[in-house]
Amino acid sequence: MIIDQRALGFGSGERAIYATDPWTTRGRLFPEASSLTRSDFQRDRDRIVHTTAFRRLKHKTQVFISPDGDHYRTRLTHTVEVAQIARALARALKLDEDLAEGVALVHDFGHTPFGHTGEDALDAMLKPYGGFDHNAQSLRIVTKLERRYAEYDGINLTWETLEGLVKHNGPLIGENANGGHGPVALPILEYCQLQDLEIGTFASLEAQVAAIADDIAYNTHDIDDGLRAKYLTFDMLEEVPFLSGLMAEVRAKYPKLDDDRFAHEIMRRQITRMVEDVIGVAQHNLAKLKPTCAADIRAADYTVAAFSPEMAETDKQIKKLLFAHIYRHADIMRIRAGATQIVTDLFHRYMESPAEMQSHYWVDSIPGMSEAAKARHVGDYLAGMTDSYALKAHQRLFDHTPDLR
């Protein structure tokens, strides 16, 4: 994909006409006076960074359980890498960098301990009560579960940041809905009764670059972590023509490079090529769409920030590689089974004995709750746990805790 370098926003500080303007934000659910020194999107980003949920990400699994080693990605390091890529894309496309960064920083708040394994287990437990979805849980955290401010629950983010959190992967309803994910999660529908997030349209371009940055980041760092863990080899990477080409390029330039440096040179090229591909596609789509404001991005019937068909095929091939050699590896599956047991055991114990949820701020009100409300409360408690906290809780309550090493 050809990039128009003259149109790039590097260092210019200029915001494009289709960018989201922080000075005309749709505001917050609870109105607040503007800051003298920061835009509303800057304030959103800063509030996100100062939450308890953000700090907990450092002890939540990305792919490899944290005891496996200090250098594997966690949800926190993954989030920081996503934010870096989102900022780079936003600057190149002359978007609001603060909004793109804020959406990137908040996008994984709702993840449970033990990665997608914990999410699947909690979804199964909550299925009779509306199920569990990590995007919906992220929304619950920033609108209800964080309790820091005197005048409201949550952190009172702007409409645009909440929209990006909920819709960064595309519309949730209508003909352009991101298929395969079932009905809209109940917490999202409930919140939209208070503040309509227009879930039938696309999100801002800032949210779209945060979403594609997520794909770029985990495609790259899961390969890096897989090589470090010895689940992947360089020979396995040859299965993907794109990666094979990058390796040939690095070998030609650095024929005697050690494995660690060789891996890094591949990863940095992978990120660069994917970022450049997205910029070129976005420029092409913008030229075709000719948006005159941010609303035109939302009203489009396609994602503006996307991979080219060739890079989309590469993306599929990389995911296939990762599933075959990492996500479905026998060792990982054994650990996943143990993590599932931990989350399931804790859910049942807390439903039977809510008082076991130590130091939880709603515990006194549980006796008056309906079964559905109690289950959602237990789900909130479990979803907020770090890996280490969940392990300790299980060890305290049960005679045997699965070994996750």
Automatic annotation (TrEMBL):
Belongs to the dGTPase family. Type 2 subfamily. It comes from Agrobacterium bohemicum. Transmembrane segments: none annotated. Pfam families: HD, HD_assoc. One of its GO terms (biological process) is dGTP catabolic process. Keywords: Hydrolase. GO terms for molecular function: dGTPase activity. This is Deoxyguanosinetriphosphate triphosphohydrolase-like protein. Residues 75-219 form the HD domain. InterPro entries: dGTPase, dGTPase-like, dNTPase_2, HD/PDEase_dom, HD_domain, PHydrolase_assoc_dom. It comes from the Bacteria.
